[in-house]
Amino acid sequence: MTTEDPDDRALWSQAAGGSAHAFGVLFDRHAKAVYNHCFRLTASWAEAEDHLQATFLLAWRKRDDVRLERESALPWLLTVATNVVRNEQRSFLRRLKNLRRVGEERPVPDHADLVAERLDDQRRMKALLDVVAKLPRNEREALVLCVWSDVSYADAAAVLGITEGSVRARVSKARAKVQQHHRELVHTGEDR
Fold first, then answer.
1. Are 129 and 179 in contact (CB under 8 A)?
2. d(CA 62, CA 35)
3. pTM of the model
4. What's the total number of domains in the chain?
């Protein structure tokens, strides 16, 4: 600093007034010291670079709120840099702790197996629907209500307007016909 160069306090005051040039002079004057300080705190040049940028970004944002007590801004900048590094380390440790809490990733089931299962389910359901469609309407209605939808025989009887015994008989006949069709498919090898 020559006799013509303003001290940090004057530059800080100008920067607080909006002078980007004055802040740039402060950066040029102290960046190397802050950078080295950050390296000594992290043992990483890359992290030191990030922390240097974060320190001066924070200094720029706080320029209106901070009044330098000494002629040099360096002690304050080093304190800010220390806090920036400490906060980043705490944040890193929190993220690491959260990752450990989550645990290992579970293996993802093969999507192809799920697709194949769904296609098989659809094929079997289509074949079953073809068989059920051939049943008399009264047996089909009783089967769908009581077997597929788990409606009680008494409730199905009330809905269909028949006795509970009639519902049971219709369901029994429908099951027998569906099972017979299934046995025929297995015997011929079509149910695969």
1. no
2. 19
3. 0.52
4. 2
